[in-house]
Amino acid sequence: AQAAREREAAEQEAQAAREREAAEREAQAAREREAQEARAREEEERRRAAIASGGPSEEEARRLAEEQAKRDAEERERAARADEVKALRKTPDGLARLLFDSMKALDGELYASCWIDIQDARYLASARANETLNLARRARNAAWDHHRRQSMRDQLSRAEFVRAEVQVRKARKGQEVLDGKIVYRVDGREEVIPLANLQQVEDGSWKAVKLLP
């Protein structure tokens, strides 16, 4: 009888412990629900306050963040492309490749960056800078018009770059290439774009002064 009473007491104590644990779990769950509801109320109050003060709604803020992320990605892509272009312009062969790519893709911005500007003209020609720049611009525009028409006729758009044929020689300032050429292949045959004059400019990179159609 004594053993039975002890077992019953032990079972009652275990049951009480289980009930206390269950009650504690329920209390903890209730506290978590209350905290979650409090955070939700705070977020809603902040959202309403932002709207009342003229700030963006949560949806608008998300849209603005997505647009900013897109702009940041585009800027990183532009910076990477600018570094690539700068690296290629360190050699006349690289410049020739850039010229070909720009004309094939009808990328006027890339094409223009391959030509001398007024600062380059002053370095190369000093007192004759404006005359040199004007000649370069006319050559640039003539070559662009000619090869743009070729690209529009699928001549260049279907072509692949083969090689640049350039011979570097010493110039009055830096180095230059005269009578070089870009060789490309289209429809199984090789064609050329004459590189009449490429010049090494003040920063050591290369730019075009004259191409021929």
Write the layout of secondary structure elements.
Blueprint: H1 2-52, H2 58-88, H3 92-105, H4 108-113, H5 118-125, H6 129-152, E1 160-165, E2 168-170, E3 175-186, E4 189-200, E5 206-210
Helix pairs in contact: 5-6
Strand content: 15-25%
Bin the helical content. 55-70%
For the terminal residues, how far apart are their CA atoms? 117 Å
Reading the helices and strands in chain order gives HHHHHHEEEEE
The overall strand count is: 5
Number of helical segments with 4 or more residues: 6
Low-confidence stretches: none
Secondary-structure-based class equals: alpha+beta
Principal-axis shape? elongated
**In this structure, how is the largest beta sheet organized?**
5 strands, antiparallel
Q: Whole-number radius of gyration?
A: 36 Å
Average pLDDT confidence is: 86
Key traits:
single chain; 213 residues; alpha+beta; five-stranded antiparallel sheet; 5 strands
What does this structure look like?
- The protein has helices at residues 2-52, 58-88, 92-105, 108-113, 118-125, 129-152; strands at residues 160-165, 168-170, 175-186, 189-200, 206-210.
- With 213 residues, it is of the alpha+beta class.
- Strands 1, 2, 3, 4 and 5 form a five-stranded antiparallel sheet that branches.
- A hairpin with a 4-residue loop joins strand 2 and strand 3.
- 20% of the residues are buried.
